[in-house]
Every structure is written in structure tokens, then in C-alpha cells.
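Input for the complex:
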Amino acid sequence: MPKNLIPFLLINAVKVVLVVVILLMCVAYTVLLERKLVGRIQNRWGPSRVGPFGLLQPLVDGMKLFLKEELIPAAVYRPLYILAPMIALGCALLSISMVPFGVDLGWKGVDLFQVSDVNIGLLILLGITSIGVYGIALSGWSSNNKYSLLGALRASAQVISYELALGLSLVGVVIRAGSLRLRDIVGVQATHGLLSWNFFGGFQFVAFFIYLMAAYAETNRSPFDLPEAESELTAGYHTEYSSMKFAMFFMAEYANMITVGCVATLLFFGGWTSPFGHILSGSGPVSMAFFSIFWFVVKVFFFLFLYIWVRGTLPRFRYDQLMGFGWKFLVPVAIANIVVTSFCIGLRLPVQ
Amino acid sequence: MHLVLFIVFAVLCVAGALNLLLQRHPINSALSLIVVMSSLAVLYLLLGAEFLAAAQVIVYSGAIMVLFTFVIMLLNAGREERTHGSKLAYIAGFPGAAALLGLLTFIFISRRSSFGSARLGQYLVTTSDLSRVLFRDLLLPFEVTSVLILIAILGAVALARKEH
Amino acid sequence: MVPIAYYLVLSAILFSIGVAAFLIKRNIITVFMSIELMLNAVNLTFVAFSRQWSQVSGHLQVNGQIFVFFVMVVAAAEAAVGLAIIIAVFRARNTLNVDQVDLMKL
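Predicted:
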């Protein structure tokens, strides 16, 4: 046993608890943000009664969901019925542990702004997305209900189809960075401010749009939210779920949204680096920490805003249009992006 | 410490495999196989194969087993499958597998000193090491496997299509 | 420090459980899953031996892990085609029991 194991474990435990608590608070306030923004797009206020500007609404919603009656239908297959929302929420919370929020500051040998720094961080994110399919598939199947099963099969087919486009769009970024480690990918984008970000200077804008569309389909959000559309399939795979388990699916969806925003900023928009290069980056450890978190939060907030804006604006895809779009358009364009990127990088660097 | 990790995930593997054997409903077998595959991914990490651990989770647990789960859900595979199909399978199955296990275990345990020990953190094979060999020395097998996957896609689509 | 022989014994156990499940189970899909279990046991053997070879020779040997990569690809292709065949058999015979699909004629 190394002699600094106990402080190491304690600091990491505190870090994990802090990250999870902050993530869940962000999930709750993202729901409020969505309701208010969609309301403003539709020329109405959104929740504005509870607290100033409706800011206490998530707390009240949380209390309502906890206090609702927990109803388990008699004909469901119980072990999977209870396991499926746990898988969904577990995968959503796991994926936030790979995301670095700020600069590489350490305290007693523990990285302060990332829960776990793994050499293959990006692949683990893809793997967690793949496991998340089970939450959907098993929930639909265990509900013992035709509509749930159909909705679950459709949603799972959608998720696994767009996983391909998601993975392929990230290869261009990995080629540029030469590593799968998320801190290295941000490090490559940290040199000249705005111009060295993968979206602008790295010329990965095609990959960025493919990633965005694939991520919208992965998280089952508009315009790809056919599995959850109430008018189509009576709420699809979470028809038979009530109160706490429904809340788990709901939280998993918004936590996945936040993770997608975090990953998009890390991979394409320079993570926590300032767009002005060294001007607003801070110099000592405290100001660097502050500015890095500030820029990270601003960029993730922009992505959440974009998610909600697209939801309020675009109509829904039909299922066959959705599958055709994923397979016949996104995958070939992503492969073309990989070919062009590797060609450009191969021509500039000497072969080792 | 390392041994504790190995024992925990090895027990999970064996328990999942036994559960696959003992469960009646195929969906339970599928879920226990997913547990086996994920524990194997952790064991690959303990042996220093980090890319393979991620590939095991993405390809096996996250794609192949999803395919199995889909087929079980679509075909609505029934619960009890207790046909007294073939007594010969029971008579030859368990003893045959036990004989195989006994032989292999004897060989491995009797030579265990010549295999050495694996310490966590040494001989870590990174993605760039793997890709250096895969895309230079073994480029032809790599291209051939892509043709193989193409043939498999065509075959699966042709076979699973409804006849009109 | 875990002796590599332990990994090999574990893969032998998994392989023999796979063989037993292959011979005993009566549902086609479960039989197919036991094939995947056997392939995974073999993958573990490959990775363990690749590690042992690296330790013996002193520098990184990755050929065992490359083979695992190819085994995964082949297993994926086989699973796709095999499940398509199972679906076709189900459509023809309307049963998933191996004992009831043992004649060529319906």
C-alpha cells in the first residue's frame, strides 16, 4: 500500500461527490433553462412564478417527482424494469468522470479538475455511450407493453446507427492531436487562442457538424426525438415508468446533453482555453483556475443554448428519414473527413 | 492489491459464465454474458492492453451483445426450453468439458513458474504501438478484414430480408 | 503481482463452461452466445501470452493483441451473419429449439 493512499482516496472521493452533485444541480437547472428558452421562442414566459424568474422551479419539480406514487405494473419483468433506469443514469454520470474542466492543476498529486485521467479517455466515452443503449432496450422490453417495445427498438436502432457517425467524426480530432487523451487534445488547441481550436484552425468544422447531429440523435433530442414523441408512441420506452424511475431517465437525458456539450467544447472549441490567446487566461494558479473554469462554463452553456434553440425551432424527423440520414449521409461524409484530414496531416509531417 | 482486483473480476467472469449455463431464459443468459465481457475488459486493463479493453467494451458489450439482445427481443424467445432433447448431450457434455478443463489446468499449473507474473502498470501497450504494427506490418490482413466485414454486412442484409 | 498462469487457468475455465453450454443448451441463441464466450476465453489467452512474451523478450510485443483485434472483427462478422440465419430459420420453422430443427425437410 503506498503511504499516501488514504489522502489520495479521500481527495478523490470528495472530488467525485462534488462533481456528481454539481452535475445533478446543472441537470435540474438545464430543465429550467429549456422550459424558459422554449417558452421565449414560443413567445411566452416559461416558468416564472416560483421564486424570482422561476429559479426555484427545479427544486419544486424535484419534490413533486419524489412524492409521486411509485407504481410498478404487475406484468413487468421486475429485475430488468428496475435495472434499466439505473443503467441509463449510471452511464450518464460515468461519462462526466472523463471530462477535464480546467487547467492541469494538482494538489498533493491529485488532478483537481478531472475525476480520472485515462490514456484512452475518448474511447471510454464511446464505450459508455455503447453501454447506454441497454438502458433503453431493456426498459422497453421489460415493460411488457407493445408500444414500449416498439419505441425501445426504434430508439436503440437510432442510437446504434448514430454511434458510428459519432465515432468516425472524432477520428479527425484524434489524428490532429496524436493521442486519445482528452487533456492532450485540448493541449494541441491551446497555442494561438481562437485560431488553433479544432473548429477554426484545425479545419474540423465538417466533423463538428457531424458530431453535433450524431450527438443530438444519440441523446434522443429534437429533431431526432421520435422515440419520445408523445403523439407518436404514447411516450415510447418510458411509458410504464413513474416518479423516481422516470426521473432517472429524465436526468440521464439531460446529463447526456451536458456531457455532449462538454465533449464538444473539449474536442472542437479548445476546452478551457480562452479565445483571445493569452489575454484572458490568467497567470498564477488561482487566476488560471478561475479563467479556465469560466471559459469552459461559457462554452458549455453556449452548447446547451444551441441544443434548446434547435429543439424549439426544427420539426421532427420521420423514422425512415432519420435512419437514411444517419447511414447514407453522415457516415460517408465522416469517412471523407477522415480521409481528407489524414491526407493533410500526412503531407505536412514527416513519417516516423 | 492487484491480486484482489484480479480475483474480484475473475469471480465475476466465472459467475457470469455459470449463469449463462444455468439460466433458462435467453435474455438472462445474454445479460450475464455482458457481465463476463465487461469483466474481461477490466482483466485486459490489468494485463496492460488498454486499447483492447476499450475495444472489448465498444465492440463486444456494446454492439455484438446489443445485436443478440435485439434478436432475443424481436423473436420473443420463450422462457422455458426444457425439451428432453438429447440425453447424449448431458452424458457427453459435462464430462467432456470437465476433461478439457482438467487437462488445460494441469498443463498451466504445472508450468506456472515459466510464465512469470504480471505487475500492473508495466508493459503498457498504447494505441500508437498497436497502430504502428497494424498499419505497417499487418496492413494486408487489416484490409482483408474490412472486405470480410463488407461480405458479412451483405450476407446479413440478404438473409434477414423478408421474402416477398 | 498476479501470476500469468492464473489468467490462463481462468480462460480455460471460461472455455470449458462455453463448451458445456454449447453442448447442453437447447435454444439456438444461447448456443450462439456460448460460441462468443469461447472466443472471449481465447482472447484472454492471447492477451496473457502477449504479456508473457513481452516480459520474456524485454520489449513490447503487440502481436498477440493484434490477433485479438482480428478475432474480435471475425466474431462480429460471424455474429451478424449467424443471427441473420437464426432469424431466417425462425421465420421458416417458427421455433428456436435446436431439437426441432434437426430435419432438412419441414
